[in-house]
Amino acid sequence: MIITFATQKGGTGKTTLAIAFANYISAISDRKINVFDFDYQKSFYHKWKEDEVLDVPKLYDVECIDEEQPFADFETLINLKDSNEINLFDLAGTLDAKYSDLLIYSDFIVIPFEYSDVSAKSTLVFVNMLGLLESEAERIFIRSKYDKGYKYLNQEGMDAEITKYGILLKSPVFKRNCLQTIDTRKLTYEQKYAVKKSFGELIEHINETLEITI
Ligand SMILES: Nc1ncnc2c1ncn2[C@@H]1O[C@H](COP(=O)(O)OP(=O)(O)OP(=O)(O)O)[C@@H](O)[C@H]1O
Ligand SMILES: [Mg+2]
Fold first, then answer.
1. Terminus of the chain with fewer CB atoms < 10 Å: N or C?
2. Ligand 1 close to Cβ of residue 14 (< 6 A)
3. Residue 182 C-alpha to ligand 1 middle, in angstroms?
4. Mutation test of ligand 1: which of 15, 62, 122 has the most ligand atoms closer than 8 Å to its C-beta?
5. Interval 88-92 mean pLDDT
6. For the chain, which domains are there?
7. Cβ neighbours of residue 63 under 8 Å, at least 6 residues apart?
């Protein structure tokens, strides 16, 4: 299966959530996890490399995708999709034609978003683009860096709009300092607690949709 973390807006928490999800899944699933860093900044990959100094075994491998037309043979993509392994992709916060095939054939696109005006607009532009691509992927929206004490004025309208295009996870991932220091080898108790509810919902949804147990 292919699970892609993407949206058009930079800095919404794609990489943080992708790392947290990869670590989280490693602890609960027997399936092999493969991570593909498709961002030219290679944040996931660099982090994973840096973490080699930690005296903790790696949970998964991270591969960089540098090519302009990575799925030109197409079969690679279909093999990843048909595989029982969990293939996670982390994308850059910019749209690029090289992402098209992946966005079309992912099983799930996890879209972290915030309620700021810019983020809301970018999120809607992104889902419109997925529509234009006729992407088969199921869109799963996740409120990211959510501030508990803040009253988001556009939340209701934005939620209504978003749910036209996909699933909105009920539980947000709150703004938490512990998530800023995440590494690719483990989740601390605090980090696990920070993502547990949202990821629980996400996994339940994946399992139901694909009729599997992750
Ligand atoms: N839940 C959270 N609570 C607090 N800080 C967070 C949270 N999620 C992400 N951050 C911080 O926000 C910043 C951007 O996060 P991240 O790099 O994951 O976003 P991104 O969407 O991958 O960005 P880019 O578009 O540049 O790839 C980082 O400094 C990260 O530590
Ligand atoms: Mg990133």
1. C
2. yes
3. 10
4. 15
5. 98
6. 2-210 (3.40.50.300)
7. 34, 35, 36, 37, 45
Handedness of CA 33, 213, 21, 134 (dihedral sign): positive
| Residue 204: DSSP 8-state | H
- State the pLDDT at residue 74: 87
Using pLDDT thresholds of 50, 70 and 90, give the confidence band for residue 22: very high
Question: 116 vs 15, 29, 58, 155, 201, CA distance in Å?
Answer: 19, 35, 36, 9, 24
State the distance from the centre of ligand 2 to the C-alpha of 180, rounded, in angstroms. 13
Distance from C-alpha of 105 to C-alpha of 91, rounded to nearest angstrom = 14
Q: Is the CB of 176 under 6 A from ligand 1?
A: yes
Q: How many residues does the structure list for the chain?
A: 214
Express as a percent the part of the chain with pLDDT over 70.
Answer: 100
Q: For residue 144, which atom of ligand 1 is closest to its CA? A: 1
